[in-house]
Each structure stands twice: as structure tokens, then as C-alpha cells.
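Late entry, alpha-L-arabinofuranose complex.
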Amino acid sequence: LQVDTSWKAARKIPQTLFGLFFEEINHAGAGGLWAELVSNKGFEAGGPHTPSNIDPWSIIGDESSIYVKTERTSCFSRNIVALRMEILCAKCPAGGVGIYNPGFWGMNIEEGKSYNLVMYIRSLESVELAASLTCSDGLQNIATAVIVDTDVSDWRKIEMQLLAKGTCRTSRLELTTSKRGVIWIDQVSLIPSDTYKGHGFRKELIHMLMDLRPRFLRFPGGTFVEGNLLRNAFRWRETIGPWEERPGHYGDVWNYWTDDGLGYYELLQLAEDLAAEPIWVFNAGISRHDQVDITAIAPFVKDVLDSLEFARGSLKSTWGSVRAAMGHPERFPLKYVAVGNEDCDNTKPFYQGHYLKFYNAIREAYPDIQIISNCDGSSKPLDHPADLYDFHTYKDANNIFLMKDTFSRTSRTGPKVFVSEYAVHVDGDTSKGTLLASLAEAAFLIGLEVNSDIVHMASYAPLFVNENDRQWTPDAIVFNSWQQYGTPSYWMQTFFRESSGAVIHPMRLNSSYSGSLAASAITWGDNEDIFLRIKIVNFGSNAVNLTLSAIGLQAGVNTSRSAVTVLTSDNVLDENTFDDPRNVVPERSDLPNAAEEMQAMLVPHSFTSFDLAL
Ligand code: AHR
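Prediction complete; structure with ligand written out below:
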């Protein structure tokens, strides 16, 4: 394998090449990255109808002691359902009666940490209501605060901190009383007080994202953006403003309710916290099973222009001032939008017409915004203007490996490519992320690096899975209420975190290996050194001995900082698990024999990165 490092032959890789795609799928946000512990905060999960769906809230006490129902009596007009709790017992059971919320498959409460509780209550009599965090089905109390109030005849906001005196991974929040009477309860929130920068993100999960150094964040879907029906699609306007006034919505593709605490504003904030370019995927008036025709698209276009004003407008603008009121007077640097998700196919005949309406309106109002079309321009030119086109691919490992050359063959004119969803995935396969999958994906990404004159962005999908709601597998990061680990596909991406903005060099590889090896060579720098990085995937089951040579180096190789990193395992189908989260992870070692020409042995089924310090 020979690399030509002369600057004449080099090319800069786009700054944006590798990023992240966040979708609300598999409880990635609600019950995941978004640290809110209460599920169905406003008893609204059935929509604004009564009786509403109060799941997963449950009742503590029997029919003779408590009667619970929902009513349209909330103080929040966009969120009109509240819970009415009638305590019937004169002498209530020990501990009282009431309701509890188990969060998302149990709340992770940790000793010594504090939790911010907010809720709204009303009663015609004085109240004595205990808010407790309990473990083991209510048997062990790990935090309690009692609300005693003599005048709550109007809705009253209660705010308090609960300090945990024990650790329990499957806790629940109980609201109980032994006092006869009626209490109305609404909008109950419990958030750990140590979220990332106080922005509401679960720290360990956001740190895993940061470790990938993503250059962009595409959000919030995926099919989550589309909905099965338009009425269930993501509507940015309903996800901003005070959390108590967000109606929430039922995501009918992934079949769960979200209170939308993680809304449009928070996702822009997430991109900022990750130092990533936000990419807003908006609904294009099309869902998976219904769509508006072109005569009805104008309000959708206006809605998107408003969303852009929310992100980028001045403090004096209508929507910019709403953003500022939420705590972000600075504009969010939103420079990319995607018109819909997977909407360009012959079951959706209105896409092209809608697209042009969005395109023209956005181009006129925000000429610097890059507009992404859903139509695949890799096999034939697009028949409409676009800055990038979206490309999704899910295939088995062999086919993803073979796709490493896909973009060598595509046209160099026209829009750039955004591979916004790629992964080894086969419908019905229950694999949770193998070494084999990560090797195939690594080869595919090497192909994207090599073709990064035309491919400008790429992101793996899906990013997260809560192990309790595994709707799509594999995923990059697996978590439950308190643990998390990266699959081999997550670790594979760490080999590419220095690629965006680096320099790629031409390389020749003995052609007899093209069926089993994939390789690229880049130079990148940290604060001290420049490195030549040669990455090689050995997809085959035989070890390969290679001579690596770098021609055109201006100085020699500094062996003291050179290193080799390998991702491999005993079995190609090996996975990581909660019990063994580091079963398949990269191993780094020094490279004392680093030189302009050196012998290297690639073990079977491996991904190796040679970093030669220059
Ligand atoms: O990543 C999972 C799903 O795959 C996305 O929601 C959709 O865009 C694609 O079909």
C-alpha cells in the first residue's frame, strides 16, 4: 500500500463530513438523552380527550379509598387535561393513597444527588401531599418532601428539591396523602439537578456523543418527522415555550407518546453544545400515509419560515423574541435544512411540487441556507435545484462493504451528497451490533472519505436505543436508566473523528486485495504534531501482510508519538453488552517501528489505524 503525501496531490476533506443523526426512535430522547424522569407529565398521553390515557401513572390504594379520573380543568389551555384525585378514606392505609409514576421503565435515583420536582396542584381544602421517591415497588423510601398548603383554591405551582438518601435504578415518584378531599394535579416534572450545563441532557449520554466530535447534528428524524399520518407528525411550534404548555404528541411511527420536553429549541441547543452544525429536517406536508396537495402547502411553507426565524431571527422578530424569552438571545447558526424525510418516491406524487415551494421561499428569505432534497441523485441527475441530496442505505454487511465504491461512480456535477442514514441493518435480524457490521461500515466510510469531493456529510442511524424499547436494531449507543455502552459501530466511528477538515491523500493498494480490504490515508493535526493516518479494514478471514510506504514526506517519522489502533475480536459476530461493554473496543499501542516504509500485519476481520507522527 503506497501513499503519496505530496501536497500537490492532496485534497481537503469537508469540515462537515462526519456528524450525527438524532431521531426520536427507541426512546432515544424521551426516557433517554432527555433527562426528564416523569413520563406523561400532564396526563395528556391520549391527546386532549377525556378520559385521557394516564399511562404509566398508576393508582396507590383500592376503590374504597381513592377515585381517580382525568378532567379538562387544567390551568394550561394548550394542555387542558388534569388529574382529579378524590380521597375517600377517612382512615387511610399507612403511607396514604395517591398515584405513582415509574418514569421510563424505572427512574434512576442516586444517593447524594438532588432532583428538581415541579408540579401544579389545586384543591378546595388545605392539602397535605407527600412527594416521595421509592424503590422496590414502593417498599423502600429514598426521598420525601411534604407539601402542606392551606390555600390552593387556585392552581399553585409547587417547586422543591428531593435529596436521595439511597440509590435505586428502578425508583418511582409517588404523590400520596391521607387527608380526605379532592386534589387536582397537573404537569409533574422531576429532573436530576446535574444535567449537562443545566440544559436537560443526560450527562453520560451527551459525553458519548461529544467523544465522536460530530460536525453536524441532523434532527429530529427520520420517519418521526413524517408520521404515519400528518396529524401525528413532529410540529416544531408545539415543542417550544414553557414545558408546561407543550401539548406533547403521539409519534405514530415508533408508537409512543412524547411530552416534547426535548423540542425544537432543545435540539438546536444540543447541536450548539456539541459544537455541531444543526440540520433541521422538517415535515414537507407529507406523511407516510397521507399528504396535502399543492393547493394546501402554503401554511406549511409559512410554518417552516417561522421555524427559521425562531432559530435565526433578531430579538425584534416575532419568533426570534420567543427564542430569546426561552433563554437564547443569540441566534442559532442554522445553515442546513432538509425538505422532508424519504419523501421522494412514486407513492408520494406531491413531493417535487412541495419541494419547489419550500426551496423558493427559503432561498429567497435565507440565501445562505443549504437545502437538502430527499431525491437520490446518485444514479441520475436531479430535476430540481438543491445544494445536497439525501442518501439512505441499510443493507447486510457484505453489501455495505461492497458499497465502498458507490460514490466513485457518481457524477461530480450537481448537488453534493449527504449520506444521512447508513448502517448494516436487515429487517427481522435481531443482531445488536457486531464487529462484522462495524467493519463493513468502516469500509463504506472509507469510501466516503475517498469520495469526499462529492460526499459532504454522513451519519450513522439510529444513534440510540433504550434497551426497553428496541424497535430498530442495531444502533450506535445502547442504554437503560443508568448504564450505557457503545456498539462496535459506535467505536468504529471514533476512527473517523479526525477526518472532517483533514487532508486526504491518493493511495495505491495492491489490486488483489480489493475484494477484502478498504483503505484511506489522511493527514491531520493536534496541538503538537501532524499525523499521517492510514486506515485499513480487513474484511476477510485471513491475516494480510502488507508493506506500507509513504512517498513525498518532507521529514521523517517521529516514532515517539506514532501509534496503531485496532478494532477486532475473536469472533466476527462478537457484540458488546451491559455485562461486557468493552468486549469489542479499539486497542491502541505505540508504534516504535513507525517509518516511511514498514511492514504491517492486519489480523483477520479487523480495522486498523496507523498514526505516523510527522
Ligand atoms: O433510522 C431508522 C429509520 O430508517 C428512519 O426513521 C427512516 O428515515 C429510515 O427509514
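The two ends are 18 Å apart (CA to CA). Will revisit in the morning.
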